[in-house]
């Protein structure tokens, strides 16, 4: 690491100076080339075919906005100013109004941080940059790089995630457990009409099954990286599984009579969530789980614990 911080979140309601500094094509080009290497003003001017005086003015604006750092060092003739970006990534984000009285605890789990798996081919994992391990090899699910996974898929079997049971440390009564994930069927080459019975278990209790209609590849997912072939799974459907005192539901539609008390939440320090396709399922059409950097929803698997008011 070179000391450059990772991400700057710019609040457009407050960070006007930073927005103005970015509102210039030459300054954007300077930030782009400085991402790759530290350069002095003469080198920047040569790379962009701009006068040194113009570059010096732009560098001053970027420095005053806190977007680059400069350092004066000795050169053969006098001093030179070395420039490098202050951040690797810039994110413009409007602030969300914080609900200080929210009645739930939320945990987001990266899809590669599963604690148990038993899958069959076709199967594999990939990060936003590359395939992890080897395709159609279950051992790839043991690769340490699985933690970077943004997409994983398999024909049958399951993966399990262990969430901390934060409900043990809250005095309120648990009213609902809610699981949200972006899912689809899985078949080589994709097929929008390829049903698959996707089952969810919580603490080893089967709460129910949702039938995915297909494996979607008609258009690129909103967050799916460009290197991922268009013939591959592009996005899924964001599904909401919930368990209450009345039963278990998918998107508000009841799928079983399994209730909160059946899950024995208070007896365990973790909440185990398993997603999979049974080997005896009527529609054994595989499973894609989309995480950050893939699909239409930039998220992992989210577990929310809701409490009575």
> What letter string, H or E per element, gives the SSE order?
EHHEHHEEEEEEEEEEEEEEEEEE
Residue ranges: pLDDT <50 for 5 or more in a row? none
What is Rg? Answer: 25 Å
Distance between the termini: 46 Å
Strand content: 35-45%
Share of helix, binned: 10-25%
Major β-sheet profile = 10 strands, antiparallel
| Chain-averaged pLDDT | 92
Number of strands: 20
- Please identify the structural class as seen in this structure: mainly beta
Shape: elongated
How many alpha or pi helices?
4
Describe the structure.
The protein is mainly β. The chain has helices at 16-22, 25-36, 41-48, 52-64, and strands at residues 5-10, 39-40, 68-74, 79-85, 87-92, 104-109, 116-119, 124-126, 131-132, 151-154, 157-164, 174-184, 196-202, 205-212, 237-244, 248-250, 253-256, 270-277, 287-290, 301-307. The strands form four sheets. Strands 6, 8, 9, 10, 12, 15, 16, 17, 19 and 20 form a ten-stranded antiparallel beta sheet that branches. Strands 7-11-18-13-14 form a five-stranded antiparallel beta sheet, with no helix packed on it. A hairpin with a 3-residue loop joins strand 15 (237-244) and strand 16 (248-250). Helix 1 packs antiparallel against helix 4 (52-64) and helix 3 (41-48) packs across helix 4. The longest helix has 13 residues, at 52-64.
């Amino acid at each position: 690491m070179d000391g450059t911080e990772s991400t700057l979140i710019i609040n457009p309601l407050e960070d006007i100076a930073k927005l103005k500094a970015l509102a210039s094509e030459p300054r954007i080009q300077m930030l782009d080339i400085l991402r790759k290497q530290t350069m002095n003003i003469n080198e920047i001017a040569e790379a962009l075919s701009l006068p040194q005086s113009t570059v010096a003015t732009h560098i001053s604006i970027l420095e005053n906005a806190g977007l680059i750092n400069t350092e004066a060092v000795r050169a053969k003739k006098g001093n030179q100013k070395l420039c490098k970006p202050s951040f690797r990534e810039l994110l413009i984000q409007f602030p969300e109004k914080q609900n200080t009285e929210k009645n739930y605890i939320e945990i987001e789990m990266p899809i590669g941080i599963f604690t148990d798996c038993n899958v069959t081919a076709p199967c594999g994992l990939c990060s936003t940059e590359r395939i992890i391990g080897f395709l159609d090899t279950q051992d790839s699910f043991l690769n340490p790089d699985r933690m970077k996974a943004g997409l994983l898929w398999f024909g049958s079997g399951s993966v399990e995630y262990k969430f901390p049971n934060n409900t043990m440390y809250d005095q309120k009564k648990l009213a609902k457990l809610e699981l949200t994930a972006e899912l689809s069927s899985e078949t080589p080459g994709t097929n929008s009409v390829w049903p698959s019975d996707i089952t969810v278990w919580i603490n080893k209790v089967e709460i129910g099954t949702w039938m995915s209609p297909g494996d979607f590849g008609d258009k690129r997912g909103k967050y799916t990286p460009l290197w991922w072939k268009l013939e591959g799974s592009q996005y899924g459907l964001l599904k909401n599984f919930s368990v209450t005192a009345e039963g278990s539901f998918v998107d508000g539609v009841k799928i079983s009579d399994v209730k909160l008390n059946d899950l024995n939440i208070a007896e365990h320090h973790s909440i185990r969530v398993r997603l999979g396709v049974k080997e005896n399922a009527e529609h054994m059409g595989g499973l894609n789980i989309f995480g950050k950097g893939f699909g239409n929803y930039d998220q992992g698997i989210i577990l929310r614990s809701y409490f009575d008011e």
